[in-house]
Amino acid sequence: MSVDPTPLTLDLQPPASRAAALKVHCLINRRAGAGARAPQEAVEQAFAAQSPAVESVVRLCRHPQALAKMVREALASGADVVVAGGGDGTVSTVANLLVGTQVPLGVLPLGTLNHFAKDLGLPLDLTGAVEVICHGATKRVDVGEVNGHYFINNSSLGAYTEIVRVREQWRPRIGKWPAWLLGTLTVMRRFPILKLDLEIEGRWLRSYAPLLFVGNNVYQFAWPLLGARARLDEGCLSLLLTREAGRLALLRSAILVLRGQAELAPEIETTCIQSLTVHSRRRRLRVAVDGEILRLKPPLRYRPRPQALMVRVPAAQPGD
């Protein structure tokens, strides 16, 4: 598949050049991994230290279910930038409501992994992130879509979905990483197999797969860049599909992929696609969408949404 390598033009509009102040609404998920290290007062002070041409409102979200309502309130109040303060799940929730609008997303990376922020090249410290939100540039990036739900990182079925389900069940009691380990051990013991019919850009494939992974743009599957993306504006999806095999065969193939030898791993297929339809006889399928488990009715229709989301990014430097 050929992809136009021409970089997207950044829409530069420094706040200082505006007649009116830049209105920034920052919504912080109090449950995010680094939330305790960036309390509301610290975030307010970081925004207050910016140009007088920036007006900021900082709100804490103590219940994730209320986050979508707070985003709608920010849009209704005339916010110029809506900031998601939290991890990838928080950023995804806010992004879903900004897709297709002219209001850019700002990212305050307070989560554990912050994949989206890293792939955009955003600063991970509070001061640097706020500087980009207030004085950076605006860029259009892609999102993925499955049955009307958008994802900024990835969506999957099978083993990973079950790991997330077990993790969320046990995390309040034992913590995130022990819950991850428990989920992984549970899946290795049960080893779920999905019986699916896949339509991949007109090609039909009957699959008995432990895992189907769909990423927004081109994912790296080899170590040490595992899970990283060089760009978020290539207008495509990554597909990783595991075929039916025993545990040891899949483990061997996974090691080959991590070593950059995917062509020697017959149980794993990786490719870039423009469309994917997943058919199943099940009435509902558990689907992980940016870490959130949804129960969706098949067929699942995956497609990229090129340049559908506006994001604040570092301003281009002279000579870039």
Question: How would you sum up this structure, described in words?
Answer:
The protein has 320 residues and is α+β, with helices and mostly antiparallel strands. It has two domains: 15-135, Probable inorganic polyphosphate/atp-NAD kinase, domain 1 (Rossmann fold, 3-Layer(aba) Sandwich); 150-155 and 192-307, Sandwich (Tumour Suppressor Smad4). Helix content is 28%, strand content 33%. The protein is built from eight helices and 16 strands. The protein has helices at residues 40-48, 67-76, 88-98, 115-120, 126-135, 159-174, 176-190, 247-258; strands spanning 22-29, 54-61, 81-86, 105-109, 137-146, 149-151, 154-158, 194-200, 203-209, 211-216, 237-242, 268-273, 276-279, 285-289, 292-296, 300-313. The strands form three sheets. It has a six-stranded antiparallel beta sheet with strand order 6-5-16-13-8-9. Strands 12-11-10-7-14-15 form a six-stranded antiparallel beta sheet. Helix 2 crosses helix 3 (88-98). The longest helix is centred in the middle third of the chain and has 16 residues, at 159-174. The chain is globular and about 60 Å long. The model is unreliable at 1-18 (pLDDT under 50).
